[in-house]
Amino acid sequence: MTSIESQVLQPYKYGFVTDIDSDTIPPGLSEDIIRGISAMKGEPPFMLEWRLKAYRHWLTMKEPRWPNVRYAPIDYQAIRYYSSPKQQKKWDSLEQVDPKLLDTFERLGIPLAERKRLAGVAVDAVFDSVSVATTFREALAKEGVIFCPFSEAVREHPELVERYLGTVVPPTDNFFAALNSAVFTDGSFAYIPKGVRCPMELSTYFRINASSTGQFERTLIVAEEGAYVSYLEGCSAPMRDENQLHAAVVELVALDNAQIKYSTVQNWYPGDEDGRGGIYNFVTKRGRCAGVNSKISWTQVETGSAITWKYPSCILQGDNSIGEFYSVAVTANRQQADTGTKMIHIGKNTRSTIVSKGISAGRGQNTYRGQVKILKGATGARNYSQCDSMLIGDQCGAHTFPYIDVRNSTAIMEHEASTSKIGEDQIFYCKQRGLSAEDAVSMIVNGFCKEVFRELPMEFAVEAQNLLGISLEGSVG
Amino acid sequence: MERSEGTAMLEIRGLHASIQGNEILHGVDLTVRPGEVHAIMGPNGSGKSTLAQVLAGHPAYEVTGGTITFEGKDLLGMEPEERAREGVFLAFQYPVEIRGITNAYFLRSALNAVRKHRGLEELDPIDFLAVLEEKTKVIELDEELINRPVNDGFSGGEKKRNEILQMAVLEPKLAVLDETDSGLDIDALKTVAAAVNKLRRPDNAAILVTHYQRLLNYITPDHVHVLADGRIVRSGGKDLAHELEARGYDWLRAEAAV
What is the pLDDT of residue B2? Predict the structure, then answer.
């Protein structure tokens, strides 16, 4: 391994296990298990019906084989579909939360205690199958913003959940979305009422802790007319030799003139250097720009997971709506990623921007897969796509699969792609100016990712920096 | 006027170097003292660029014999970044592009690495900007270049001038200019030469590696050396350059072969 590679292949820092008693259910999946989950969550009947319908459909589906990734078959009967830290019936305040949980999130850089909270960021902390705390809820409620665990939204705001759930990603959408719809446990719900600019960043931190357990969270964000919200998502998991499944669904709905900015720093355990263990991150994320002039932006920095399979997408339904996708995906060691986006142009004068940066090191395999579809009625649609790949070492791979489907002759499409290699010449040039090899690599990787990093909110930019071990100076702000 | 007195800054003795097993330099000797400008001339393939790269420590070249002493220290024992921090600068024949990193940020990082090594305080962006403005004036570089990514989308001439800007900012003791004149039109050549002249000081030195004499119309060297087939076959004053311009290199190669 070269020194350049060893720098990129840093050891995983969040691999600790929290020793806590859990309420878990036996492994396996059946209608009874689903009824059990629904009962534990105290859900209204419509929710159970919805889950069962999804489950029955899922039974008829086959796991997709088209992604450019390789893994042993998953035994869905060996997975535990629910695990929750033992707890009192209901947490009314943080004082009642097990200190071990607070400590876990503190170690992950997400302090939940009142005086240590991150300024300007409301956090929903999800541990295995349940949300353990949501900060700043009162402050948000004053503005009419609802930000709460998904299971609570099902109980407290069933009318909103019923109106929007599954409208962007139907339960029958794909194999993993159907599975999620049947067994999802928790996640976040955010609702920004008409004309409100959400006064702080909303954030959910997902932590998988229990072994043999899958995490199936569900996130739904609705921005009403003229509303604005910036939402951040982070995640990590302990180091284990087994593979764990994470199959989430995220749905975003933006009505007229609304804007949703969704940022992810994904750092699930990637497995060891021989490819043992790690999370299978099979996620469906989609936003619907339902209203005119609405805008949805996805920004993601993906460094974790053994296998990543996700395509945060935008359905540009409202006239003049805008979809954006900015992504940095890093695959090192034996990691595999098949990720990209879909931009579906339906409304007139809709615009989309795709900027994808893939970095492969070690034996990592990085695939960009993206679709731009311009439907017949989408007069004046525009798309700009840029896909750049960087290779570090000579055992990794980068692949690009852009799909373009244009049915309106007024569309304007631009596509740029490049592949570069961090070469000895580049490193030597920096060293000749007095920089160390480490600083040189940081600088080159940083420069490569710059267009994506500058889309991240400040708090996340710092986390991304730590993840890639790079300096962000010059690329933030 | 030849300044051949005083202690040597750079001493190259019996230098042999090869790339991928092919020996390119077959025993080079060269002494450079503070305040001197040396021109290394020679035909293509004579080993000029190899000499420049070996001085800077490019990992592709293997030194198979000889010594290089820089200010009394063993240069060959140092990593490329240590050499740079000690004051050896190479203006690249083909400067490398670094996307997404501005020239200003790159240069400040480099200058601070050098300053740290010399026990000086690191410069913050504001103090650095003052340094940068002063230097861009000296070498008449378009200020707009400093906020563009390092060499990204630069014309050939801009890249070469950018090398000189880096040199001006880093203030090396020994600057090695590897074919800085190649690919430059006459105006760019004059600007680069003027900048190099302005940066000349009694306590620094330069080695100009060049194929053509024309750069030497604007930068007057103290010594001219002809490198052919991996050896210095002739050394002289600035007149030697004119002679080479008139007669070419073949007569020297013929003499050397005897």
Answer: 44
